[in-house]
Amino acid sequence: MKLRNLLSEKRYKSYEIEKSSIRGRPGFMIKLIKANGEYETSFAKTKKQAEKDAQMYLKMEVKITRKEMGEIALFADAGVPVDKKKWKVSRRAAKRKFGEASSEAKKRYAQKHYRKSGGAFR
């Protein structure tokens, strides 16, 4: 998983504009279709405005919070640990928590523990 790919991911894949049949809503409905097939709706008074809004929505990118960005960077391929002793302690802590079985969660926990204890990766 590349951080750059996640940051440039578009929120909506395509759109459809149709006359609104919902009572109390302006003239046109914009159906914004996401990559997973779900959709959101928006409304505009004129078709021209609906087209303009839809183009603006298509340019929108997915917003990633600072916390999510930190987690993504943490779980990305870390590289080689600089301090072997701290890395060994972190692996033992992960082994205590998750047992003998090899798992992605154990690897992430070891990386997180290693970083919290002041370790860095090359």
Give me a quick take on this structure:
The chain has helices spanning 3-7, 47-59, 66-75, 84-98, 104-116, and strands at residues 14-19, 28-33, 39-44. The chain is an alpha+beta fold and 122 residues long. It folds into 2 domains: 3-59, no CATH class; 77-116, no CATH class.
Give an overview of the whole structure.
The protein is an alpha+beta fold and 122 residues long. It has two domains: 3-59, no CATH class; 77-116, no CATH class. Helices cover 46% and strands 15% of the residues. It contains five helices and three strands; from the N terminus they run αβββαααα. The protein has helices spanning 3-7, 47-59, 66-75, 84-98, 104-116, and strands spanning 14-19, 28-33, 39-44. A three-stranded antiparallel β-sheet has the order 1-2-3, covered by helices on one side. α4 (84-98) packs across α5 (104-116). The longest helix has 15 residues, at 84-98. It is rod-shaped and about 65 Å long. The two termini are 18 Å apart. The mean pLDDT is 79.
Strand content of the residues, in percent?
5-15%
Would you count the extended β strands for me? 3
- Order of H and E elements: HEEEHHHH
Summed up, the helix count is 5
Task: Write down the Rg.
Answer: 23 Å
Going by helix content, strand content and strand pairing, the class is alpha+beta
Q: Taking strands numbered 1, 2, ... along the chain, how are they ordered across the largest sheet?
A: 1-2-3
Q: Outline, from the CA principal axes?
A: rod-shaped
* Tally of individual domains: 2
Which sheet architecture does the biggest sheet show?
A: 3 strands, antiparallel
Indicate the mean pLDDT: 79
Unreliable parts: none
Taking the alpha carbons of the first and last residues, their distance comes to 18 Å
Helix content: 40-55%
